[in-house]
Write a structure and sequence with these properties.
Length: 220
């Protein structure tokens, strides 16, 4: 995936950000490329976010690593016994995920965090591939934010998962069961994205995020 160049606008944006940088990180070498999923290949929980952050994952090369959203996410995973460390700062920080994998619906950082409809569609085969590789052990999905919820449901339908109709509405704590092409029932949970917009305003609290991962871990 690191060499994927199917979305010229996003590929260029990632490179441009890696050159201009944010002042706080001007001494660092940015990753500036597509960011793949992180976590064991036999995970039972798959967390899906929107896309790499321009100065987070696009800088460090690992999803949700090096920004405030990641601090919240990894903090919650750690409290739930799903991450070795309570923070994720760089590719070489020793972080390990335990039974959980994190990925994105779009793998290159988009301007204004807004990939186009075409870019979302172009990147979706990567998510389909990741889900299909995880199927033997996968028990639950967590979608961080409405975009990830919609993208994940579209991907599951494309893989012939049975998804309830009408389409389940996104909200924090929304959940439904989906049946895979292998006949196995799995849980899909929605969570507000741990962006600063949600965490600074109190829309998403640590306890609320922790509850999502408690639920995902408990589903067998
Ligand atoms: S967003 Fe996805 S499909 Fe587009 S260039 Fe990046 S990795 Fe490739």
């Amino acid at each position: 995936m690191g060499k994927c160049s199917a979305c010229p606008r996003l590929v260029q944006w990632c490179k441009d950000v890696a050159i201009t940088k944010r002042k706080a990180y001007e001494s660092e070498e940015y990753w500036g490329k597509p960011v793949s999923g992180f976590g064991p290949a036999d995970a039972s929980i798959l967390i899906v976010g929107l896309a790499p952050g321009a100065h987070g994952a696009n800088r460090t090369g690992r999803v949700f690593t090096g920004d405030r959203s990641g601090d919240w996410l990894f903090g919650s995973l750690h409290r739930n016994g799903l991450a070795k460390l309570a923070s994720s700062t760089s590719l070489h920080d020793g972080q390990e995920l335990l039974g959980v994998r994190i990925t994105c619906a779009v793998h290159c950082a988009p301007p204004d965090n807004k990939p186009s409809t075409e870019e979302k569609a172009t990147c979706s085969p990567w998510l389909l591939k990741e889900i299909s590789l995880l199927l033997p052990t996968l028990k639950s999905f967590v979608a961080l934010g409405k975009f990830a919820w919609d993208g994940l449901i579209d991907s599951l339908k494309a893989m012939d998962f049975q998804v309830p109709t009408p389409k389940p509405k996104f909200g924090h704590g929304s959940q439904c069961e989906v049946i895979g092409p292998d006949g196995v029932q799995r849980l899909l949970i929605g969570s507000y994205h741990p962006s600063q917009q949600n965490t600074f305003t109190g829309k998403l609290t640590e306890a609320q995020l922790d509850q999502v991962f408690e639920l995902a871990s408990a589903y067998k």
